[in-house]
Design goal:
Elements: H1 3-13, H2 17-32, H3 40-54, H4 61-71
């Protein structure tokens, strides 16, 4: 397995199970679709995410809960 994918799995393993399931379903779906090129903005976004992960820049539990509260159905 390539190092980037291994890193992604390590990050995902730290998430709650329901979030892991969502990401796994998305990965499976992406793998089953035809390959398509990413645009530069998408590639830049991926690079920023990898850099943040490598730097250990993750949202705190408080930040995650604030977002959940903000977008949780009423």
């Amino acid at each position: 397995m390539i190092k980037l994918l291994e890193l992604a799995f390590e990050v995902v393993r730290q998430l709650p199970e329901d979030r892991q399931d969502e990401l796994a379903q998305g990965l499976i779906q992406a793998a089953e679709t035809k390959k398509r090129a990413l645009n530069q903005a998408q590639l830049d976004s991926i690079d920023r995410g990898i850099a943040d992960a490598n730097a250990g820049s993750f949202a705190s539990n408080e930040e995650i809960e604030a977002l959940r509260a903000k977008y949780r159905p009423v």
